[in-house]
Amino acid sequence: MSKKILEVKHLQKCFGEKEILKNVSFSIQEGEVLVLLGPSGSGKSTLLRTLNGLESIQKGEIYFQGELLKGEEKQWQAIRQKIAMVFQNYELFPNLTVMENLLLSPTKVQKREKTTVEKQAKVLLERIGLGEKLKSYPRELSGGQKQRVAIVRALVMEPTMILFDEVTASLDPEMVREVLEMIQDLAKERKTMMVVTHEIDFARRVADRVIFMEEGEIISDYTAQEFFEEQKNERITRFLNSLTH
Amino acid sequence: MYLGISILWDGNNLGRLLLGLWEAIKIAGVSLGFGIILGTFFGVIRTFPSSLIRIIFRIYLEIFRIIPLLVLLYVFYYILPENFNIDLPNQLVSVLVFILWISAEMSEIIRSSLMSVSKHQIESGKALGFNRLQLYQYVYFPQGIKSAIPSMINLVTRVIKTTSLLMMIGVTEVIRVGQQMIEHYAVTISTAPLWIYGFIFMLYFIVCFPLNMAAKFWERRIGG
């Protein structure tokens, strides 16, 4: 039996006069990989950012493991340790080595034992073939390597779920694969994830469920099977075709 | 023939000039010590979202930027004792006025360097669960302070140069000492001002030039 981890009800987000998210409702189950698709500017990234408290909301409710998130910074600081986020531009701290980047939050925020986290980080880095980069600085890594380290940085926090915000959008094409493969492996481990992407083939491979957004609204919310194989909506079909060809 | 330059070695002159320089550096040093700490604190506060705090500090900063320091020195040295019966020694007045001035300038240096840290880096820190203090400790300061260093060194140079104003409220810093000497030699050696001011020029140069070079070096490092 699956458990509801996150539930969003009637979310509204405005930038000034402009309504970015309109009455958005959905939920995500434990172990589920939810992919958000839709044209640029449809509000996918904004939606993801509201789930990590990086954007305020005007209306609606967000429940995480049954707890209502009221928008207070203190509460978000605790929640962010459980809802990790990986950004488009990796955003590793340039003044710290790979290992220091990985240790910072688990030791300073979560107050965990340094040696334990270090061991865990090493295992994770070795698994993705970056075991020798412990002492490297971000500037010495390629874009793909940086992004994979950023994903490890999210993983060592042992989050309940991970948000991926167009994590391959600023990578060179040859580096996209290594990052996507890593996320695919996480999907196999049944990590709960929410992924915003433009990589349709990747979405097809990892998604359990697909939410399609347009102009701030969820216009379809189906299982991946239904979305990709039995799509009846003409606009969505056109969108999918425009990305694959 | 009596060589003008020899007045520097006459009696205790050299020692007195150096002591005057020491007085200037002491006042600059103490003021900078407190002013930088206070200014850093103000600078951090000015990055907080509260607009009331921002306006208050903005007014404070503008006052100390617009009003000539000399006027502030006079206000504190002459007007305060006369109207409020607060009698302060001139060195203390100097240090106080300097601290207020330095912390205003410093708060702006720190504020703008902290604000120069990329918004994405801050979000990345937030996403790792950092609280406000941790954001400053691990993201804002390590990344922002680099861009503050050249301006800070320039501020140090400006403070040292500005100590020359302190003679106006009777602090025996190097220029005042020099003037006393010039008056002493006014009749006997007509070239005295040239040698004494020339020497003071050299003293300021020796103190400030390395600082200037350091600032340039840092600017290049950041740029490169």
SSE topology:
The complex is a heterodimer of chains A (245) and B (224).
Chain A: E1 4-15, E2 18-29, E3 33-37, H1 44-50, E4 59-64, E5 67-68, H2 73-79, E6 83-86, H3 98-109, H4 114-127, H5 143-155, E7 161-165, H6 173-188, E8 192-196, H7 200-206, E9 209-214, E10 217-223, H8 224-229, H9 234-244
Parallel strand pairs in A: 3-8, 3-9, 6-7, 7-8
Antiparallel strand pairs in A: 1-2, 1-4, 4-5, 9-10
Chain B: H1 13-45, H2 51-66, H3 69-84, H4 90-115, H5 119-127, H6 132-162, H7 174-185, H8 192-223
Describe this structure in words.
The complex is a heterodimer of chains A (245) and B (224). Helices cover 38% and strands 26% of the residues of chain A. With 245 residues, chain A is α/β, with parallel strands linked by helices. Chain A has a single domain (4-244), classed as P-loop containing nucleotide triphosphate hydrolases (Rossmann fold), CATH 3.40.50.300. In chain A, the strands form 2 sheets. In chain A, strands 6-7-8-3-9-10 form a 6-stranded mixed beta sheet, sandwiched between helices. In chain A, helix 3 crosses helix 4 (114-127) and helix 5 (143-155) runs parallel beside helix 6. Chain B is 78% helix and 0% strand. In chain B, helix 3 (69-84) crosses helix 4 (90-115), helix 5 (119-127) runs antiparallel to helix 6 (132-162) and helix 6 (132-162) packs antiparallel against helix 8 (192-223). The longest helix of chain B is centred in the first third of the chain and has 33 residues, at 13-45. The model of chain B has no long low-confidence stretch (mean pLDDT 91). Classes of the chains: A alpha/beta (245), B mainly alpha (224). The A-B interface holds A 52-54, 73-74, 76-78, 80-81, 84-85, 87, 89, 91-95, 104-105, 108-110, 153, 157 and B 120-121, 123-132, 134, 138-139, 142-143.
